[in-house]
Design goal:
Elements (H helix, E strand, L loop, with lengths): L1 H9 L7 H9 L4 H27 L9 H22 L3 H17 L2
Length: 110
């Protein structure tokens, strides 16, 4: 999470999410582009889910915690942080999103 915040901080103008930027421009007009962009989001979410599933397998998450739901929530929060960082030009928005994800995951810890 720190890496995504640092990446935004290093930009002269915070870049937001390239996938979301393209989605806003293409998704309504180009179905193939929409599918490619959805695949990019799916791969990001899959990586998050895989990590959370590994944590669950090691007993690090509460038994009722859903790695799939946590992954979707994490992606949603991070995307919101990226959008707000872009439109507000304020990396603090991304830091807030990252901290919110950490709180969410900490609440799911066993």
């Amino acid at each position: 999470l720190n890496a995504i915040v640092d990446l935004q901080r290093q930009q002269l103008h915070p870049a937001g999410c390239p996938i979301a930027s393209l989605a806003g421009q293409l998704a309504d007009h180009d179905e193939q582009a929409r599918l490619i962009l959805a695949d990019g989001m799916d791969r990001w979410e899959e990586g998050l889910r895989t990590g959370l599933e590994a944590m669950a397998a090691r007993g690090e998450l509460k038994p009722d915690a859903s790695p799939a739901l946590l992954a979707t929530q994490t992606l949603t929060i991070l995307q919101g942080g990226l959008v707000l960082t872009k439109v507000r030009g304020d990396v603090a928005q991304m830091r807030l999103a990252a901290d919110t994800v950490l709180t969410l995951i900490n609440e799911a810890l066993a």
